[in-house]
Amino acid sequence: MKVFSGWRRLVFGLPLIFLLTHLFSVMELNKNSKLGEPHKQPNKKFDHLVLGPAAGQGLSNRLQCQGTKALNRTHSSNSRSGADGSITFVTVFAIYNSSLNVGDEKSSSTVFGDASYNKVGRSMALLNVFINFIQVTMPQSKVIILTDPVSDLPVRRNRVSLYPIQGEYSRDKLMLQRIRSYITFLESKLQELSWKPRNITHYIFTDSDIAVVDDLEQIFHDHPNFHLALTFRNNKAQPLNSGFIAVRGTPDAILRAKLFLQEVLKVYSSKYRNASRMLGDQLALAWVVKSKPHFDVSRFAKGLAFSEDIDGSSILFLPCALYNWTPPEGAGQFHGMPLDVKVVHFKGSRKRLMLESWNFYSSSLDISDMLCLILGSGRTKYDF
C-alpha cells in the first residue's frame, strides 16, 4: 500500500511538473525573441525639424513647395492696409519667475541654437516671436498683453503694453481666466469710449502661439457689418476655436462682444468647468452657437465665411483654414496650405516650430519660403 501511495503521488505530480516546465520554456522563448528584435524606442519629441514632402502637391490654390522653396507665391498683401494702426492685438500671458527654483530650471532646460532656455525663457522667446510676426506683417499695429498684476513679465517693446487684470492665472484655470480677462478689457474700452470718443480701433484677441503672416485689416473692410468674428473648422464636437476672436471697435460691437462672451463664460462655468484646463472654452463656444434653433451647423463643413445673428450679435464665422491654420503633425496636413492663409497657429507640440519658423524667416525674409518650411515639417512631434 505504501508503494502504491508513493506511485500515486508521482503520477498526480507529473502534470504539475510538465506545466511548470512548459511555463519556463515559454518565458525563456519570449525573452530570447525580444533580445533578437530591434530595440523599439519610445515615442519621443525631436529637438529638430524633420522635413518631408509638402502636402497639397498639385492641388489648385495650395502652396507648392520644393523643399523650403516656394514654387508659387502666397496672396500676401503688399499694400499694408493696416499701416494706420487701427488694429490692436490682445493676448493673455503670465509668468512667475519666483516660482522656479534652480533645480527646476536645470531639469527643464532646452537648447535651441546657441541658447539654452528654462521654462520662463521658453515662454518669453515664444511671446517675442508672436510680437515679431505682428510687427513685420502689420508694423503699425499695437499689442496689449493682459496679465496678472503680480506676474514678472519683462517686456520692453515698441507698441507693446501690459494691461494687468486681477484673476486666477494658474494653468488649471487659465482658459476660464482668459475669457474673464477679455470681458474686463472690453468693459474698460466701453468706458473709455463713453467719455472720450476717438478713432475706431479694432481688436483681435489671440493665443500667443500664433504667427500673423498677412494683413488682417481686410476682415473689417470686406465684412463691414459684423460685431465679432470666430474661426470654425469641420469638427463635430469642437467646431469653433477660441484662439482667434476679432471684435469691431465701435461701441455697439464692443458691447455685443462683451455680452456674447459673458454668455460663453456662464456656460463654461456651469457645464464645462471640469474642462477648465483646456477645451472647455471651445465646448462652451460651440454650445452657445449650436444651441440656437435656427443655426445651421452644416455650414461648418463648407469652409466658406458666413454671418449669423445670435441673440442680437452679428457674428462672422471665418474658416480656420485661412485665419487659424494649424501646421501638420504626425500624418500630415492632407490638403496642404491655402495660398491666402493669414494666421498660423502653433498649437500643442508645435511650439518649437514657431521659433524655427521665425529664425528661418529672419535669414530669408520670404514669407512663402517660410510657409514651405512649416508645411513640410510635420512628420514628427517636437516641442519647445
UniProtKB/TrEMBL annotation:
Tagged with keyword Phosphoprotein: no
Q: Which UniProt keywords apply?
A: Signal
- For this UniProt entry, which residues form the secretion signal? 1-25
* Name under which the protein is recorded: Nucleotide-diphospho-sugar transferase
